[in-house]
Give the backbone structure.
Amino acid sequence: MSALIDAVSFPARAKRDQSGLNLKNGESPDFITCKACNRRALRTIWKDNYYVCPECGHYSSIGAIYRMSLIFDPGTFKELNKGMKAKDPMKFPEYEQKVAKQREKTGLEEAAVTAVGRIGGNKVVCVVLDSRFFMGSMSSTVGEKVTRAIEVATRKKLPLIIFSASGGARMQEGIFSLMQMAKTSAAIEEFNKSGGLYISYLTHPTTGGVTASFASLGDITLAEPGALVGFAGPRVIEQTIHKKLPAGFQRSEYLEAHGFVDKIVERKDMRETLIKLIELHKK
């Protein structure tokens, strides 16, 4: 894989927060503590390991801009619809203040980043949902950004790659959020009619309305190891059916074994796998 980040080609916010991992109060900037095994290692070691725990292999969430820097050829990144911001159609109490905090924390305007760039010399449209921004929840603006990116891929006949990471619909926007499921799915249908290649890449977690719409409509479905993928969470399902679920239920390994995921791809192999798939499906 190429260098982790090309600071010249990517926005200033990528240089400020390359990994997408935010420091906790009192935490040393030189170390990262794994949320799974609670062991600490140098940040440089985590960076060299693509922010996968060097001790237990747990995958930490990473920022959208940083993920794009891992796959795009240097100097080819061009962000789409950069200025689109979250709206407040329901006038939900304190929603605007919470959105402002998310922007300050992440450096993003919304939970979705869309871009055109090249991967191994192949021009593609890429969408990444950032779980740091309201858990990647699908607002009306997120749905619109995803739809516009799909339409660009359709119009320009480019491969489409969507990295999903979401807690589902954004409750503060009510039905306006739920409407995005139909809108994005309709855009994918038009893209399919044009004969384009759509690679859906599921990361942790991919749940709710995102799973029930565009995340499940890929021609090829990839997933990161250990990613939780489903509509309702396992606790909700257990409480509903009053039965214990199988071990690893809704994790990417379970879904691969049952045919929902085509292949689990480690983060270090992400770029090369995408290049091979795009090359294989040219024309």
Notes: Strands lie at 31-33, 40-42, 78-80, 112-119, 122-129, 160-166, 198-206, 220-223, 263-264. Residues 61 and 172 are 24 Å apart (CA to CA).
